[in-house]
C-alpha cells in the first residue's frame, strides 16, 4: 500500500509534479502602448490562466493553445527544455488596466502576481507665449498640467539651467476619471530678456513634456 501511494503522488498530469518556475514581474507603461508579462511553468502543466484585477482575461490549454476572448489580451507561447512560457500581451493599455496581473495554474491553484502601472501623458501649457516686463517689476508665470496619471513632477529652466525650486510653488489636484492636474507658479524679477521653460515629467516619458514663454525685459529708462 505504501508503494502504491508513493507512485500515485508522482503520476504525471495529476498536477503534483510541476510548478510555476518564474512568475510575471512589475511593468510600467504609457497609456496606449503594449504591456507584456511572462509566466514560466515546468513541463507537465495542463491549464494556465491569466487574470487582470481578479478577472480572467486569457486561458492557455496545453492540448490546444491560447483561448482568447478579447482582442486586447493576446499571448505568445514558448517551449524549451526548462518548461513552457506564456507571454500575456495587453494591447492599447488603459488607465483602468492598472493593478494586479496574476498567472495561475488550475491543477495546483498556484499563483504568481505582478503589478501593471499605466501612466497618462496629459497636456501642458503656459497661457501667454510672450510677456513684457519693465525693470524692477516682479511677475508670476503659471504653468498648468491637465489630465495626467500620476501627477507630473514640474520643474523650470532658463538658458539650459534649472531654476532654483525656491522660485516656484507646485500644487496638485485630483481631476476626473482618475487623472491628476498640477499647477506651478514661478515668481521672478527679470533683469534681461530670456526664454523660460516649464517641464513636466513622469516615469515612462523618455523626455519631459515642455512649454515655453519669452519674457521681454524693458529698461525703464527707455
From TrEMBL:
InterPro entries: BTN3A2-like_Ig-C (IPR053896), Ig-like_dom (IPR007110), Ig-like_dom_sf (IPR036179), Ig-like_fold (IPR013783), Ig_I-set (IPR013098), Ig_sub (IPR003599). Gene3D superfamilies: Immunoglobulins. It comes from Trogon melanurus. This is IGSF5 protein. Residues 12-114, 122-214 form the Ig-like domain. The keyword Cell inner membrane does not apply. It is found in: Membrane. GO terms for biological process: cell-cell adhesion. The keyword Membrane applies. The gene is Igsf5. It comes from the Eukaryota. It holds the Pfam family C2-set_3. Keywords: Immunoglobulin domain, Membrane. Its main location: membrane. One of its GO terms (cellular component) is membrane.
